[in-house]
Structure formats: C-alpha cells, structure tokens
Amino acid sequence: MNTPIETQLIDGKAFAERMTQKVTEEVAELQKTTGITPGLAVILVGNDPASEVYVRNKTKQTHKVGMRSFMHLLPETTTQQELLSLIQRLNNDPDIHGILVQLPLPKHLVADPIIQAIRPEKDVDGLTAYNAGKLALGHMDGFIPCTPLGCLLLLQQEVPNLRGLNALVIGASNLMGKPMAQLLLNQGCTVTIAHIDTRNTAELAKQADIIIVATGCRELVKGSWIKKGAIIIDVGINRIISDDKKIKLVGDVAFQEALGIASKITPVPGGVGPITISCLLHNTLCATKKHLSI
Ligand SMILES: NC(=O)C1=CN([C@@H]2O[C@H](COP(=O)(O)OP(=O)(O)OC[C@H]3O[C@@H](n4cnc5c(N)ncnc54)[C@H](OP(=O)(O)O)[C@@H]3O)[C@@H](O)[C@H]2O)C=CC1
Ligand SMILES: Nc1nc(=O)c2c([nH]1)NC[C@@H]1CN(c3ccc(C(=O)N[C@@H](CCC(=O)O)C(=O)O)cc3)C=[N+]21
Ligand SMILES: [Mg+2]
Fold first, then answer.
1. What is the pLDDT, as a whole number, of residue 294?
2. Class of the 35-121 domain?
3. ipTM surpassing 0.90, yes or no?
4. Which is the catalytic residue, given 61, 122, 123, 125?
5. DSSP strand pairing (247-250 vs 238-241)
6. Which residues make up the binding site for NADP(+) (predicted)?
7. If one looks up domain 146-273 in CATH, what number appears?
8. Is 217 in the pocket of ligand 1 (CB under 6 A)?
9. Taking a C-beta distance cutoff of 8 angstroms, is the pair 84, 112 a contact?
C-alpha cells in the first residue's frame, strides 16, 4: 500500500520558454506594424530577497523579448507620497504600458492605496479592485495576477479537465492565494483555502488532488500531508544558506519527502518562477495592445 510511486518533475522553465517565444514573436510583429515597443515599469522599495530574484530575472527576460524595462530601485526610506507621485507619473507616461510594484513593501508604507493608484489599464499584476473584481466575476479579459495565471496554465497542461477535483490553496494573499482560488473555482475545482489561522491544514491537504502552496514558509507541506498521486504546485521562494555555505532557493514543500508520494511536483527553482515572468511579459503585451485598441 505504501509502495512509492514515480514522481514527475514539472519543467516550468521549458513551459516558460515556449510562452516567452510566442511573446517575442508578437512583440516583433507589433513593432513592425505600429512602431510601438511595449514598456514595463517596475518599482522595488528596499530589499526583499524574493523580490530581488524576481527583479533580476525579469529585467533580463524583458530585454530578451524586445520590450523596454524601466526599473525604479528606491531606498527603504521612500515615503508614501513619493511612491504615489511616481505612480502618477508612470500612469501618465505614454512609453509605459505596464506598472508593477514589488510586494511586500517596507512596513512603514501602506500597500493598498499605492496599488489602487495604478491605472487599471496598466495594472499588469492584476491587483487593482477593477481587475480583481473582473476575475471574481469569472471574466478572463482583465489582468490576472501572473503567478496564479501561470499555475493555472501549467495545471491545464498536466490535467486537461480540472472539473470536480479537490484543490487546496495554502496562503491567501491578494497576489497569489485569492486569485488562484478564483481561477480554480472558475475551472470547476472544489476549492479550499488554508491560511495562517487554519487549524487542520494537514487534514485538508490529505483530501486534495491538487495542492498549491504560497506562504513563504519553508518545508511547510510535509510528505505525510500529501495524498498519494496528488499534484503539487510549489510557489514559495525562500532563500537559505545550504550546508556547503551557498545561497540556495527552496520552496514551501519538503521536496524530498514529496518524492514517491506526489504524482507531479514543480521544483524550486525551475518551476513556477520562470512562468510568472512569462505571464508578466504576456500581460504587458496585452496592455500595449489594449492601449492601441488591437
Ligand atoms: N514563484 C513565484 O513566481 C512567486 C513566488 N512568491 C512567493 O510565494 C510566497 C507567498 O507570496 P505572497 O502570497 O505574496 O506572500 P504573503 O506574505 O503576502 O502571503 C502569504 C500568505 O500565506 C499565509 N501563511 C503564512 N504562513 C502560513 C502557514 N504557516 N500556514 C498557512 N498559511 C500561511 C499568510 O497568512 P497571513 O496573511 O494571515 O499571515 C498569507 O495569506 C513567498 O515565498 C513569495 O516569495 C510569490 C509570488 C510569485
Ligand atoms: N507585485 C509583485 N508581483 C509578483 O509577482 C511578485 C512580487 N510582487 N514580489 C516577489 C514575488 C516573488 N516573485 C518571483 C518571480 C519569479 C521568480 C523567479 O524567477 N524564480 C526563478 C529563480 C531562478 C534563480 O535565479 O535562481 C525560479 O524559481 O526558477 C522568483 C520570484 C514574484 N513576486
Ligand atoms: Mg504579500
């Protein structure tokens, strides 16, 4: 009964490369026909480690697909008003089609008013009330947050029909957990959301055909939580110092324990991260096209 099964690693990098390739072709086509280059502005205040990984990789990818990247690296001491003014400036800048504010922001800043100041047409992270509301209504034509969108596309590749499956989403942020749950609900999954106050997360996990975890808690999901044959999507990005004193990225799943129990799992790195970037480029291209009404 407890014989281990073979666990397939889902190759997020290969998936992302295929998506990015399509975006590259479309950017070239757009430039040829309109002369317009999509522009993405990214704001990073202070130095959150997961954000630094993201910023580094996406700057590289943005240039690779032929888009312009406008990076705003601001000191930890930046004020609410300075940030709001910057967003107003970017909202009105015709060279900028997408705006992304890296989360979390330092503690002295209030994130929500800053996010809500972004023009919904430039909100490629899908965090404004307009875009979040669209998703809640089941509309797929607003901007959908990049990570949940990427996780859904990946799941659809692995499981053509998600209808009726039990999905557990662990973590309930506006960026990841909540929109992920909405997307899975729209696909016909029976969705449970576990968060910091949930008492029986292990039991809920044991019922799940799909577990998606985004908490930032290293090794939160143990092997013993996982139902045999379940699919695991590990969104967590945790920077640790490994035994050989190197900086290493790990997810929110006890990866070694999951092997032999899960049917499929996304590794960290090389799983969800690269797909998030492809989705961001995709959303930025969409923002540019919407702006041009094409
Ligand atoms: N690979 C990728 O592309 C991406 C990776 N990430 C990574 O995913 C993780 C989560 O990101 P994000 O959603 O923005 O983070 P947040 O910190 O905004 O949200 C984390 C969520 O998890 C909940 N949580 C924390 N600890 C536990 C726990 N022990 N059990 C259950 N729930 C818990 C929190 O609850 P509460 O708010 O009540 O504390 C919150 O709802 C981070 O590691 C981040 O770096 C994020 C986006 C993209
Ligand atoms: N407004 C906002 N939107 C986000 O989507 C957002 C954010 N803030 N804040 C930080 C988190 C984290 N995040 C990552 C995206 C890609 C990688 C990524 O490229 N990961 C590679 C890393 C490869 C490496 O460099 O080793 C991988 O997992 O393979 C990591 C982390 C997006 N986030
Ligand atoms: Mg957050």
1. 87
2. alpha beta
3. yes
4. 125
5. antiparallel
6. 171-173, 196, 237
7. 3.40.50.720
8. yes
9. no
